[in-house]
Specification:
Order of helices and strands of chain B: HHHHH
Distance between the termini of chain B: 41 Å
Helix content of chain A: 55-70%
Number of helices of chain B: 5
Strand content of chain A: under 5%
Oligomer: heterodimer
Order of helices and strands of chain A: HHHHHHHHHHH
Number of strands of chain B: 0
Shape of chain A: globular
Structural class of chain A: mainly alpha
Distance between the termini of chain A: 47 Å
Largest interface: A-B, 102 and 75 residues
Strand content of chain B: under 5%
Largest sheet of chain B: none
Structural class of chain B: mainly alpha
Helix content of chain B: over 70%
Number of strands of chain A: 0
Radius of gyration of chain A: 19 Å
Number of helices of chain A: 11
Amino acid sequence: MSLNGPQVETLKAPLGEDSFIRGVKDCVPTLLGYLSIGFASGVVEYAAGMSIPEIALMCLLLYAGSAQFIAAGMLASGSSIFSIIFTIFFVNLRHLLLSAALSPYFRHLTPLKNMLIGSLLTDETFGVAMNESANKSRLSDKWMHGLNLTAYLNWFAANIAGALLGQWISNPEQWGLDFALPAMFIGLLVLAILNRNKLVTDIIVAICSVLIAIGVSTFTSPSIAVIAATIVASTVGMVIEKWT
Amino acid sequence: MDIRWNVFLVILGAAFVTFIPRVLPLMVLSRTKLPEWGMRWLHYVPIAVMAALIGQELLVHDGKASSITQYIELIAALPTFWVAIKTRSLLLTVIVGILSVMVLRFIF
């Protein structure tokens, strides 16, 4: 990582607390999830007829689990370039909300540094960062880069491993690997709720969100349902907090 | 073993439409001060988005409800939640989740 441009010297928390290495360490619990989903992703992409260089390029540039599964599937079924890009746009639009929720903790950084942080944002790194933000007013960029880069490299390695070994694995679901993703989301949700003292409101928000996500996905795409559920349920939480 | 032209365009286009929503709020909102209610609203986004993703993973399958495999994931979610609450460990939660599904699929 190069550090050019004007260096803004900011007041820092005690050193070591916010280091790159600690970011790497805080990513470790999510690695098993990344490995299993990335591996499955590599298997699926290879089975869809993508070459190793194509898979590598997709991991490095797109870097988004569900979108890569969708791209592989739609390429295999011969969808148009435009329809694939359009679908992925909607699938990944929720990052808008994640990025917005993280923004108050990176107010001390330049726009360029914020761009670097945002470019590697995923559901998982977001979850870890929000848990880290409990009782803090800002997050360290070094810590965040450690977290992001570890996740990024693991995703890449797991996809390539999946693509290389995919031909010998007929059924990854047999080993329960597809459940790594929901399990990680469960862990991140529980940690997020336990790390702050708004138990009742948080549980109401979570239940609202689940109900809306399921209800809306019966008549539109799942990714739009996630966005709708997030917007409405967060508003419910905000209103409850104001009136109690 | 090389990169096809149409695949290259898909990757480039998809990467671009993913990059913008990822970076734009961080770049713009960190420069401006949000109103009090806006901050409060953003505090509920992590809970809401994770809950929505879990709900879809466990309960929505291709827009359709009901099949035996679906109940396996729903049942496996119980020990997974329990371990998450008891241990507060992301790693243990993922391991127990995967093992639960593996055992349940082996049985049924």
